[in-house]
Amino acid sequence: MSDDSLDALTGLLNRHAFHSKLADVLRGYSKDDGDIALILGDMDHFKAVGDRFGIPPGNEALTRVASLLQSLVRPEDVVCRYGGDEFLILSAGTSAARAKSLAERIETEVARLKVSWDGCDLGPLSMTTGVALCPRDGTRANHLTEAADLTLRRRKRRR
What's the domain count of the chain? Predict the structure, then answer.
């Protein structure tokens, strides 16, 4: 993996590299391979962490969340920092139930994560997730990211 494909802060794939990886997975997609799931996670009220504690503590929180996400997925899953405080997980050859279960686990584990900076607890963190699945009918999911985003936004409005 080249340095220009990685997010400098978290070491995860960056947005551009993720879209390339997603295109590769979708190109090789067969409806017999199981589902392709995309989970979009957005940190809730994350701007408040930066406003209250500053940029370095916020960066520490993002780095810790990135590490947590990496620890929760299968080795073949792909985790990306999509931008700011948004993360994407690509899980191919999965099921709808497993993808939803993983999304719920991510939300639970982010809420359990304790991050401190200079002896100060940054307070509770939370993340809302949205899950989208590539259709099983074999059509290409050109708007898979947008579908995950739409699901996430609907869930945020209900909270």
Answer: 1
